[in-house]
Structure formats: structure tokens, C-alpha cells
Amino acid sequence: MKRAVFLLVAAGLSLASQARAESPVPARDTLSIGVSIEPPGLDPSRSPSESIGTITYNNIYEGLTRLDRSGNVAPLLARAWTLSDDGRLYHFTLQENVHFHDGTPLTCDAVRFSLLRAKAADSTNPDRSVFTNITDVSCPDDGHADVRLRDAHGSFLYELAWNDASIFSPGSSGNNIHHPVGTGPFLFQEWQRGDHVLLARNPNYWGKPPVLKSVTFRFMPDPLAASNALLAGELDAYPSFPEREILGRFADAPELRVIRGSFPFKAILALNNGRRPFNDVRVRQAIAYAIDRKALLQAVSDGDGTVLQSHMAPNDPDYAPLPDRYPYNPERARELLKSAGVQPGTQVRLSFPPIGYARDTSELIAAYLEQVGIIVTLQPLEWPAWLSRVFGQGAFDMTVIAHTEPHDIGIYDRDTIYFHYHNPAFHDLFQRYEASSAPATRHALSVSMQSQLAQDEPNVFLYSVPRDTVMNRHIRGLWTDQQIAACPLADVYWAP
Amino acid sequence: MIFVILRTVIERFLVLVAASILIFVLLNLLPGDPATVMLGLDAQPESIAALHRQLGLDSSLTTRYLRWIGGLCTGHAGSSYIYDVPVWQLIRERFQSTLPLIAFATGLSLAIGLPVGAMAATNRGSILDLTVMSTLQTLKSIPDFWLAMMMTLLFSLTLHWFPASGFPGWKNGIPNGLRALFLPAVALAIPQAAITARFMRSSLIDTLSQDYIRTARAQGYGKTAVLWRVAMPNAFIPILTLIGIQIPVLVTGAIIVESVFNIPGCGQLLLEAVNQRDIPIVQNLVMLIVAGVLLMNLILTAIVGWLDPRLAETGA
Amino acid sequence: MSRFHHSYSLITGIVLLAFCLLPATLTEMLHGGHAPAIDIAHRYAGPSLDHLLGTDPFGRDLANYVFTGAFNSVMLALMAVALSTVGGSLLGLLAATRNATGSLIMRVADLGLAFPPILIAALLVTALGASATGEILAIALFGIPGQIRITRQAAQSVLILDFIAAARMSGQRTPSIIMRHVLPNIAPILIVHGSTSVALALLSEAGLSYLGLGAPPPRPDLGRALASYQIHIFDHPFLVAVPGVIIMLLVLGFNLLGDGLRDLLERPLTRAKVAQ
């Protein structure tokens, strides 16, 4: 009897599924995505704004190589390549039958044009320093490109995958800021400033055609407004949701999912190592002891995230889970300050840019430092002022900032870096890391660098928080981990 | 008379010139370089120099000022540094929400303030007067941005009558646009309505105590007739002056309310442009606002003078 | 009836101000204007005996924070109004007594009135850096054009009176006439305007801080608090309600005080006007 019922149910189920298969609900083929910042233009070779990459990376523009969703370099417009033995000549084989959105075919000329334009003297490319290492691009024929470098450079293919290394059409590149033209799976349709950018499927795409017919990127800087739009179904997805404190609102929404992704986010309290008293390692260590970093993480992210021990986010393959060298210990901080000759009541200035985590973290740090006798004056700066005074001139005492570039531990070896850290031991490690190509050696050297930084504590490494994507539960294929600022949509579709 | 008009116009023009110099100098005193803002963290000095040349920032202050004013006179306001779009185009797009918002708010504040003020004046000293005036005084004391938040909480997030934020533009139909502007306009209008009502009340009380009203009453005109035909029009004249004074305040209020409701209007544009050192936008938008306010004041003064020649003397 | 109405304004105004400012002054005296201690373990606590109004997102005592903020706002508003009253009155008196300079001053006032005040504040704060001083200056600057107009108008209405002409005949010079006759006569107007200006300055202060143009943390500030509590409007609406209500009560208090004072002080002048 029981068995019969089971069969009946099974039959009913199969009937039902057949019925569904016979009259399929038409799958949705449009997507509306919320982003927090409106780009200043859609030309990545003119501005470093992350908001440009979110809209255009591998949607509109494509480069010779690309990063996949795990951050690995993969071929794109270059189908294959070979590298000369001295590591200075790349021979690229281009994809065939690729056309720009303006109709012109992709040839080696476009590659040469784009790369040389990026390195030219009047180039405004944000990563111009990468391209100045190129001495020449020559075209043996339309389908191949030879790129010659001055110095061998292991990360060159990785850097070619960046959005500002995209290949542009020589004829239309001047107008990319308003009307971007690339070779990607989506065509630019319209940009209503202050509201949205609309992209449409490229019917002549050279690769696998995208599923979605059109995609709207809507600018919603206010997290409250964004959450309302998501709950009302006006937005389908919001990658990188800007406010963790209101994610709870989505818990009861049956159609929405919140996905916790990874992000190379490294919030630091940068210290001016070139100034007294921060040139003394004891003072820097004392400051690290004085701050309860777990409490900071609690306050900015409800405790969800990682307290950092060095300049590396947990999603980095080279990340080393170092022990906590500086657990919260105001007593130890006071001793160290005393031994370094820093009088109680010493005044320092903490400058911070206009962004939520920086403001909250700075206010909390000021309160912690006051406990150990350092009087902090908080100085809010707007972005232009922060960029020119802190980042440009390095004229500051302390600042709170999050570095979000992947693999950027090399900034501690830069002569011009704003926090003025110089250590020959670190320099040596980094040079060996750059020169080596064996993965195991590189990883070991990276761990040594992280541990060297944890010991020197040039900056107080604070926390890393995950990246939250809020989206309709039927959406598939969206990137939820951030390798670089990007939201490639070619593989995104609606599941029934 | 012509001399007076000419003098007024020339004076206002000089005010405008002074405004242009003031805004230009202030903007160029600000710390932060537009080129560093645009090129970001890893910009090379050569790239910055290249951008300076492109933007014309390598020439002297005087040249830049004259180039700006010359452009303004020939109708070329230049392009935004950041968006590289003609300034007028950006401003025109943003005015599509700001102008209707200010007009909507002004209309609402008059529609509420005038009748309420008149009612209070004609029932002077009554419980009604007392209640209405205390309520208005309270409303006037609410910070507009907080009122905006509270109204969003009630009408958008709890009752779902109005969208919580944003402005869909007029392309999606005028009703949708008006619905999006309704709460911001109310938040902006309520404190203004309170001011208008108080002003209307005292103006009407003042008018009602004038000799000519008593004369009219003595001549046998009914109380209502005197109120509507004689007192109201006279009491309304100072309200026009009040509107003139309130316009810059409304512009400021609009900037704040736009920020609460996330409406892409002129206020947002202005604050963004200051923050990004997009000098062409700031200087032209400010000139437009100052010129608009001066023009409105001129028109209102002219109307007041035409309605009541006595006031024109003191008004100018 | 009317008299009752106005004394009622005065009393209500004083009661409201006392309600906000007494605890504010007390908090100030107890804690010296310091922001309350941060206690991350007790964020968002509800009202209790330890924390009468609960705690904020940093676990600070909300009552302590809000009342210190109120004290700061009122101090800042008073300083700004003192500046604009002194500056505006001087310029206004000058405008009333000197023809050519007067017209120049009035045009500058026109410029001041036409410039959106928020822009002045934004530019000032950007140039000087966010600080209480910058905010005071910006708010004082908003107030000056209005103060000039009011002072000039009031002074002119006194200057045309007969006894001024008599004083002139008896050889008194302008400065002495202003000190002896004009100022005492227009003082009530200035005081009343001052009181309403404080109300307006409080609103401006809240607006500027809300937009991030006010004094930087850790100095407790109601407008800044509202800006950062805004996202908690769902989960902790109380956090958004309390600072807003405090600002409203303070502004209402000063407005009512102004109304009451107007009735008390301006009456003799109105009578003088009627007599004239």
C-alpha cells in the first residue's frame, strides 16, 4: 500500500515536472545591479576609480589577458603567448574574428596603439609606471603582437589583465569616457548621470554569447536606499554592499541571499615612520598594544572579519596566519612609551578620509590612545585633501585607510611610499621575491616579508572585512569574491 | 524712474561680478589639486603635468579667470573636469529635479502658510490662534533633515506610500516624478510654511489696524468684504518680499534634503563638485544660483513697487 | 488674551531651555565636555539605570553624549550669534548713518544673502579644515547680512525722529547720538533678533554637522550623531529620535524666548512708532 502511494506520488511528480518542461516560464534576461559610486567617466585609461572597472571590466573592455574569478591569469584577446628565454620578449597570438563595438576588427595595430598610448609621455594612465617598462610593440602580422620589455618582469601578464591595460579601438578611444567602445560581450547603451548606466548584449561577440539581454548599473550610494530598493525588488543584486550593519534587514526576505565573499581589504593605521615619535619601533609597537583591534572589528563589522597581523588579507594565497604579536595590553603600551621617552600628554594628529569605517575606526583609536597618554586630534579630510597631503606629500602623523589592491605588500619597498618605511632587510626579501619564479620559494619569501612587517609594525595592521553581495536567490554566476574591482556578467543567468 | 531702474540693474550686475571674483578666489585657495583627485593614488608627476596642460591649469590665475568670464559671456562655460561633459548639460540635467522641488516646496508652503496665517489673524487671541501658532512654532523648530528622516520612516518604510529615496526622472511619467518629490518637498515646505504663516498673521493684523480699513468698515462694507478685497491683497505684499528672502534658504534646504533623499539634484552636484575640486561646475553653478536669486529679488521688488509705490522706496 | 499668549511663550521657552540645558550643563560640569567612555561590549544597550537612554553604536552612554552635544551646540550657536550681532550691528549702524558707505555695505549684504550659505560653509570648512572655529565663522557669516538689514532699518526709523534732530541741533556728533539715543532705542530689537538668531544658528549647526561640515569628533555633536545613526532607523529608531528631539526642543526654546522677549521689550518702541 505504502509502495503504491509512493509510486503515485512519484508519477504525480514526474507529470508535474513534465508539465513544467512543456510550458517553461520564460527565464528573465535582464539584470539591475546596484553600485555605490558613480564613475567619473567610463575610460579606465583616464582615471583609477574602481567604479569604472565594476561596470566595464570584461563587460565592455577586454585585454590581452584576464583574471578569472579566483584571481588567476587566463588568456583573453591573446589566445596564446610565448616568452623569450631572457624574459623580455612576449610573443602574443591574438584571437581571430574579434571586432570592436565600432565595427573595426581587432588587429595588432590596436594592441600597439593601446599599450604605447598608456606609456606615452602625456599619458594619464593611472598605472603608467607599468607600461614604461615596455620598450617596443611590433606587429609581425595582424594576428600577432611582440611586446618587448626593458627589464624582465614576472607579473607582466597579471598586470596586462588590469582594466587600464584593456585594448582600445584607435578610432574611438578619445571618446571612451562618454561612450566606451571595446571588444566585450556587452555594448554601451546609455548613461543617465546621477542614475544609471545601461548595457546591452553584444550580438556580434566573438566568444560565447552572454545570456543576459541587458544590464543596468544603478548608482545607489545610500545603503538605506539601496536596501529598500533590494527589498522592493527594484534591484536584483548589490555586489559589495556598503554597510554591514544593516544586512540583518535581508534575513527575512525570501527572495534575497546575502553572500559573504572575500576581499583584499586591509584596514591599517598608517604611521609616519619618518617623523618623531613614530620613527621609534617601540612607539609603533606601543600603539599596536594600546588598540583593542578585536573591539574595532566588533564596532565596524559586528565582529565578522579577521584581525590582521600584517599587510596581507586572508583571501591572498600567500596569507600567513601569524600569531597575534600585539594583543590588547595598555599596560605594556605605557611601559614601551615610557622606555621610548614619550611623555604622557604627547599630542599627535590622526587624519582620516570621508568614509564610514575610517571615521569610526579613527574615533575609537583616539579614545584608546588617550588611555595610554597620547592625546589625539582628529582631522577629517576630504578625498582631495587626503590624497594630496597624506598620500601625495606624506605630511601627516597617523591616518586610517584600507588598502584594497591584491598582492600589494611591495608598497613597503617603495621609496616614495607615504608612510616612509625603509628597512634593508625587507628590501632584500622583496628583491628575492621579485626575482624568483618557483612558487614554493615565492610563498616562503612572502611569509618572511609578512612576518618582518609584523615585527617592525611600520603601520598598525587593523582588520580585514568580508565583501557582502546581496542578490536575488535565482541569480547564478555573479562574482562574489573581489580579486580586482570588476563585475563580469558574461556568464550570469537566472535559474528557474 | 528709468534712472532708478538703471542704477538698480547696474548695482546688481556689480554684485554679480563681485560674486564671480569671490567664488573664483575661494575655489583656488582650496587645498587639493583636481589632477591628483582624477588620477588617484599611483599617479606619476608627468601624468599630473600632462593633465594640468589638458585642463588649462598651467596658466596664471588671472588668465584662468578671464578665460572663464570670457567663456561665460560667449556662452561657453567649459566642461566638467571629472565627467568631461559640458557644464550646462550637467546643470540642466540636475535642475530637472531641483527646480521642481523648490517650486513644489514654495507652492506647498504658500498653500499651507497663507490660509493658516489668515485664519490665525482673523481669530486673533482665540484658542484656535494659540493652538495653530504654537504648532507652527514647533514645526519651524524641527531640523529639516531630521523631519525628512522621520517622514521616510513613517510614510515610506512603514506605510509604503512614497518611495524612500531617489528620483526616477520625468521620463517614467509625471506622477512617478511627483510622488518621488513629494516627501522632500514637504520636508522643505513645513518650516517655510510656519514662517509664512507667522508673517501672514502679523502682516494681516497690521493691515487690519490701518486707518483705511477702519474707514472702509465705517463706510459700511461687511467684515468679510473688507477682509478679502482690501486687507488680504495689502497683507500679501510683504509676503512677496519674504519669498525673495527665503529663496537662498530654500536652496540650502534643498541641498540638505536632496542629500537625505538621495535625489540627483543641483545640491548633490554642488557638494560633489566641491569635494572633487571640479572647479568649472562649482563656479558656474554658483554664478547661476546667485544670478537667479538676484533676478528673483529684482522681479519681486518690481512687483512690490508696482503694487505699492510707498514700499518700493524703502525696499530698494 | 494676547498678553497671556506671550508671557506663555516666554515661560514655555524658559522651561524648555531649562529642561535641555540644566542636564547639559550638569553633564558638562561632571565630564568636562569629554565624550563618554567607549564600551564596545555594551553597544546598543536599551535604557537602564546605568544608561538612562541606553548606549550608542560605540557603547557610549547616549544621555551623556546627547546632553554634552547639546551643550556644545548651544555654546557654538551663542558664539556665532555674538559675532554676527556685533559685526552686523556695527555695519548696519554705519550703513544707516553714511550714505555712500551705506550703499556699498548694503550691496555686500545683498551678495551675502544671494550666496547659498551652505556653499560658504562648505568652502570655508574645506579651506580651513573641519573645526568648531570654521563652523562658528560660517554660521556668523550667514547671520551678518540679515543683522545688517535689521539694524539699519531700526536705526533709520529712530534717526528720523524729532529728538534726534534736536540732539543734532544742540551740537552732538553722530557717534555720540548713536551711543546715547540710537542704541538704547534699538537694543530691544537686537536682543529679540539675537534670540531667534540663536535658534536659527542651532538649526544651521545641526545641518552643517549632518553634512560633515561641522566640528570633528570626538567632540559630541548632535548633527553628526544623526548622520551616523541614520542607518539604524530600523533596528534602533530610538537612536535617531533622541538627538533630533533635543535639537527641536532647543530651537523651540530659543524661538519662544524670542517671541516672549519681543512682547516684553518691543512694546515701548511700537508705542513710540505709533506716537510718531
TrEMBL record, chain A:
Pfam families listed in its UniProt record: SBP_bac_5 (PF00496)
Keywords from the UniProt entry: Signal
Domain spans labelled Solute-binding protein family: 73-402
UniProt subcellular location: Periplasm
PANTHER family the record matches: D,D-DIPEPTIDE-BINDING PERIPLASMIC PROTEIN DDPA-RELATED, PERIPLASMIC BINDING COMPONENT OF ABC TRANSPORTER
Family to which the UniProt record says this protein belongs: Belongs to the bacterial solute-binding protein 5 family.
Name the UniProt record assigns to this protein: ABC transporter substrate-binding protein
From TrEMBL, chain B:
Gene3D superfamilies: MetI-like (1.10.3720.10)
GO cellular component terms given for this protein: plasma membrane
Source taxon at top rank: Bacteria
Compartment(s): Cell membrane
Membrane topology category: Multi-pass membrane protein
Source taxonomy: Bacteria, Pseudomonadati, Pseudomonadota, Alphaproteobacteria, Acetobacterales
A Pfam family matched in the record: BPD_transp_1
Signal peptide limits: none
InterPro entries: BPD_transp_1_N, MetI-like, MetI-like_sf
Residue span(s) of domain ABC transmembrane type-1: 95-300
Main location: membrane
Native organism: Gluconobacter wancherniae NBRC 103581
Keywords linked to the UniProt accession: Cell membrane, Membrane, Transmembrane, Transmembrane helix, Transport
Molecular function GO terms recorded: dipeptide transmembrane transporter activity
Family membership: Belongs to the binding-protein-dependent transport system permease family.
Protein name: Peptide ABC transporter permease
Record field: transmembrane: 12-30, 101-121, 142-162, 182-200, 235-261, 281-307
From TrEMBL, chain C:
ABC transmembrane type-1 domain ranges (all copies): 70-258
Transmembrane intervals: 7-26, 74-97, 118-144, 182-203, 238-257
Protein name according to UniProt: ABC transporter permease
Localisation: Cell membrane
Keywords: Cell membrane, Membrane, Transmembrane, Transmembrane helix, Transport
Listed Pfam families: BPD_transp_1 (PF00528)
Organism of this sequence: Gluconobacter wancherniae NBRC 103581
Cellular component GO terms held in the UniProt record: plasma membrane
Sequence similarity: Belongs to the binding-protein-dependent transport system permease family.
PANTHER family with a match to the protein in the record: OLIGOPEPTIDE TRANSPORT SYSTEM PERMEASE PROTEIN APPC (PTHR43386), PEPTIDE ABC TRANSPORTER PERMEASE PROTEIN (PTHR43386:SF25)
Keyword Transport among UniProt keywords: yes
Record membrane topology: Multi-pass membrane protein
Gene3D superfamilies, per the entry: MetI-like
Biological processes, Gene Ontology terms: transmembrane transport
